[in-house]
Amino acid sequence: MIRVENLSKKFGELTVLKEINIEIHKGEVISIIGPSGTGKSTFLRCLNLLETPSGGKIFIDEIDILDKSTDVPKIRQKMGMVFQSFNLFSHLTVMENLTIGQIKLLGRKKEEAEQKAMDLLKLVGLAEKADSFADELSGGQKQRVAIARCLSMDPEIILFDEPTSALDPTMVSEVLAVIRRLAKEGMTLAIVTHEMDFSRDVSNRVFYMDEGLIYEDGSPQQIFENPQREKTRAFINRIRSFNYKIDSPDFDLYAMNAEIERFCEKHVLPKKMINNVLLILEELMMINKSVSKEIDVNLTLSYSEKRDTLEIIFESGGDEGNILEKIDQDEIGLMIINNLTESIEYSSLNNRNKLNMFLKKG
Length: 362
Ligand code: ADP
Ligand code: MG
Hints:
Layout lengths: L1 E10 L2 E11 L4 E5 L6 H8 L7 E6 L2 E2 L7 H7 E4 L11 H13 L3 H14 L15 H14 L4 E5 L7 H16 L3 E5 L3 H7 L2 E6 L2 E6 L1 H6 L4 H8 L1 E8 L6 H14 L4 H21 L5 E8 L4 E9 L14 H9 E9 L2 E8 L3
Parallel strand pairs: 3-8, 3-9, 6-7, 7-8
Antiparallel strand pairs: 1-2, 1-4, 4-5, 9-10, 11-12, 12-13, 13-15, 14-15
Bound molecules: adenosine-5'-diphosphate and magnesium ion.
The site of magnesium ion has 3 residues, from helix 1.
């Protein structure tokens, strides 16, 4: 239904979309996720020509919509768009908001338009608000009216740009419920959203946008459970990490500890966990010093918000192998480390020894 080839978009010097290649089929529900500023809105706006792409092609039902001879208003009618900020006419009634486009753009008769509007208001649960003014409604109600208005134009696909971002948390679910219903009825939808649980259970495909690309495209299962690429993984797991290089025996332990504490506090980790991290690191450094000839350590702390786990990645240079196996297994330091961690994995690559340790909770 929609095919995009090598789509690019620049704003002056800034390249927002580098090269987008996708297809959206009839009846698909696509959610588009990714960090802010990665061009999600720009992408939707290019699709319905609110922005003019800098390069590439967009085909809707095999019609090249960037071709000069294409009837743009007609194409645009096939694609409804719902924005973060509703965009209703606040001085008109709900009914007038829903009929004005039908009458002016589609040439429908007033009665026919009103009948259609009423059916759609029932669908979004707002039939009794037909005569209210748009600015008398709550945010969630306004957004449902905006969806009904969009449907009143008989679009073939609806593009949603963060439809719940401007809402009070209490109103998010009523809007998502309406979108869910449209999805169930087989409407083709493309939804930019930060609501990950919603995205996971409503869509049949997820686009993760980053670096001006659809960086990863997959089933919700793949994207949320088993993302294949690094940036997707970091975004999905909301991994935040802290990195520290130690290359001399005289490194500033106090400064490192202070930075680690700051990092942990920022992620609201319990005090006890912070102490455990510091304790493990102190023991690790001692063991490393007794086993390794040189001090060449790359330390990473990685906190995953989604899993609520903290991982220590202790990577050291040299050919000693697993430093934890090079010492007396009754060593108190090793016992401390084993006690405070859930799991320890060792791997080595190019003379770098890597220990991945997950901390125990609580
Ligand atoms: P997202 O929706 O993923 O947060 P946007 O598509 O809104 O990202 O924006 C992507 C980038 O393009 C941002 O850096 C933004 O500042 C820039 N941008 C968006 N619209 C314009 C515009 N009309 N003029 C100049 N820069 C823009
Ligand atoms: Mg946006």
